[in-house]
Amino acid sequence: MVKGISRQVIVVRSPDPKLFEQAIFILRADAPEQGITESQLLREARRAVRHPAPEKKWQSVLGFGAVWACGGAAVTGLVWLLTVLL
Q: What is the pTM of this model?
């Protein structure tokens, strides 16, 4: 339970309420001190709703790890082959 804290929020209604009714943004405590106008806050909130931050692409990270694993296995196999032959 949160007690004695008041926060400023921006509520942006969804243009297509099939899945989401609204998005709620909680302003940082120092936001009013930065001289940002209300219209700038609303514009930034709407931009965040339209163009969310890109998610991390785990597929590329996993693919990159697979390349290193195969490379390491190939080097290990070559070292083993050279020790057996020599």
A: 0.48
